[in-house]
Specification:
membrane; transmembrane; mainly alpha; 2 strands; 62% helix; 3 domains; two-stranded antiparallel sheet; elongated
């Protein structure tokens, strides 16, 4: 382009656009910027014709497209010449063997470039295959590891062993014992260097261990024995003597529940009754003076949740025992 606007650089055109109050020109290409300034100056010729900075624009007549239309009405030979020259250029480009390399590459408008940048293109086939192969390899390795470990074959046996009433009662007793143990054998800070003797010297290192020396205190023994008596010994003895699951020999044609050494339903009922009678009334009921009221109070405070936890555990035991009996009969 040989017009006055086309001779300017893009930075100069942007400054000129700012001068004539054209906004939002940062994303425009040079050709779009030239057209925008040209149209604006022509539409506002009465305002900017007297501007010395734009005097040459109005003297030249603006862009080549506008100039060609203006010159067509004044001088006929010039359009013919321009048209002839344009036809010659087209024939030359079409006949040239390397027209594809010498022709100007059309530039994509800025609006289309921004739109293309927001469109998410799909992953390449090579990347998809690599991800798929990696996922397959990880899955095969996991299956091979599970098969070699034998977990799949051992899991049903483990589930069968854990799905019993004994395990339920054992978990309840462990929960109560942990609370009592932390209260009677609290963890204390020790230093590894204190264990040094003779030529053997250990480095300075702090660690935490339960204070096992508390077992020498009579209060610790009393609290432990009271909990064992209430949660295990007395309920176990009563459930052994009063065993509702005990069955006398019957005809083989009649289905009967197998006998257990200890009745879990009776065990849970007796344990709940003892917890309800002893700990809320600890100041008066002490097994005939065998335990002091302070011992009963300490055990109740040591167990997580106090005697309420023991009552909840008894309720869970009763529900599991009933469910087990109903499942067997059905």
């Amino acid at each position: 382009m040989t017009t006055w606007l086309a001779k300017h650089k893009k930075s100069e055109l942007q400054a000129l656009a700012k001068h004539v109050d054209i906004k939002n020109t940062d994303g425009l290409l040079k050709d779009d910027l030239v057209n925008a300034i040209d149209e604006h100056l022509r539409a506002n010729s009465s305002k900017y014709s007297g501007d010395k900075l734009l005097a040459e624009f109005y003297e030249r007549g603006g862009s080549p497209a506008k100039k060609s239309r203006a010159s067509a009405s004044v001088d006929a030979p010039e359009p013919e010449k321009a048209e002839k020259k344009r036809r010659k250029t087209i024939v030359k480009d079409a006949a040239s063997p390397d027209a594809s390399s010498s022709a100007l590459i059309p530039r994509t408008p800025a609006s289309l470039q921004r739109l293309a940048s927001r469109v998410r293109l799909p992953n390449s086939p090579a990347l998809s295959r690599a991800v798929s192969n990696q996922s397959t390899w990880v899955s095969n390795q996991y299956k091979s590891l599970v098969k070699q470990s034998g977990i799949k074959n051992k899991l049903p046996t483990v589930r069968q062993e854990l799905s019993t009433i004994k395990v339920v009662h054992l978990l309840i007793l462990i929960f109560e014992a942990v609370g009592l143990g932390q209260a009677k054998y609290p963890f204390g800070k020790r230093n590894l260097k204190d264990l040094s003797f003779g030529p053997i010297v250990f480095p300075t290192y702090d660690y935490y261990v339960p204070n096992i020396w508390n077992f020498r205190q009579s209060e610790t023994w009393s609290a432990s024995f009271l909990w064992l008596l209430t949660s295990l010994i007395v309920p176990g003895a009563v459930s052994y003597l009063i065993n509702l699951t005990y069955a006398n020999p019957r005809p083989k044609t009649r289905r009967t529940q197998p006998a257990r050494q200890f009745d879990p339903l009776v065990f849970s009922i007796v344990k709940g009754l003892l917890a309800w009678v002893i700990f809320p009334l600890g100041a008066t009921f002490t097994f005939g003076g065998l335990f002091s009221p302070a011992t009963v109070t300490n055990v109740n405070a040591a167990i997580y949740g106090g005697y309420h936890t023991m009552l909840i555990g008894s309720g869970i035991g009763i529900i599991t025992a009933l469910y087990d009996g109903l499942s067997f009969k059905s």
